[in-house]
Amino acid sequence: MAASITPKLCRLISGYNQTLCRASYCGRLRHIEDSCKRWLHNPRELKKFYKQATISTADGWYEINLDKKKLRTPHGNVFKVPSEPLALAVATEWNSQEIVVNRPNMHLTALCNSAMENPLQKTRSQLTETIIHFLETDTICYRLTEPPELEQLERKNWDPIIDWAAQRYGLEITPTCSMSPPIVSEESKAILRRHLMSYSDWALFGYHYAVDTLKSLMLMMALVDKHIDVETAVDLARLELSFQTEQWGTVEWAHDIEKYDLRCRLSAAALFIHWCSESSSIKQKASIAPI
């Protein structure tokens, strides 16, 4: 069965095909190509089958109701979250859907599913070590020496984050200009381990998703600590790409789509971590529906 192709999608694909020939210098376009292919070859669209999403409480957890039916995870378990603000945000995601349920863009729902079902069956310790392991490939810890303009740009924008981490947490990290990984002391890893283990299980899933999205543990720590905002974190993570586009030009819509998609995913992860780390509730008058 072939996927339904709308005129808007046809224009998107046409523009995409034209940009492929002009974007050989930008390896990041590959994931956009893969996403388009998955979209086109997925014959199943989940059409909106409910009128309103509301929340309810059960055994100290918050559940999502689609009309009178409980929302369930991909494995068939009842969908439930530990905080009311998170439940309201997930319900808002479902209420914002129109004709078709756009699941790939429902980042909070996806994060909750991962935290509930833990598909890789990772323990807290394993999840923490995986996050720390990102330091070996942290974007801002790898520097280029050529061209000189880019080297200066990296020092100007990335060094302040390294300095902040040293002052805020006492981390000792030496960036690298070669294929060798950055130098991270064992004491620094121990500090990071204690810091991450202070988060809840759910927040750790959000942290892992965020670091994998941003390709930088340092930038994510600065974002969670509100030292930088989402836009700044994304701009710093894409510093080299931005330098390239200034030299060679942007690839029509591709770079903007990537940037705004990254902002959306990172914003969702930051909110997810925040709402899973604090105990809070919303007054009844602020709810989207009675509990």
UniProtKB/TrEMBL annotation:
What is its subcellular localisation? Mitochondrion
| One Gene Ontology biological process | mitochondrial proton-transporting ATP synthase complex assembly
Q: Name one Pfam family in it.
A: ATP12
Keywords noted in UniProt: Chaperone, Mitochondrion, Transit peptide
Q: Could you tell me which InterPro entries the record lists for this protein?
A: ATP12_ATP_synth-F1-assembly, ATP12_ATP_synth-F1-assembly_N, ATP12_ortho_dom_sf
SUPFAM superfamilies annotated for this entry?
Answer: ATP12-like
GO CC, sorted alphabetically, is: mitochondrion
Q: What family name appears in the similarity comment?
A: Belongs to the ATP12 family.
Report what the protein is called.
Answer: ATP synthase mitochondrial F1 complex assembly factor 2
Identify the species of origin: Elysia chlorotica (Eastern emerald elysia)
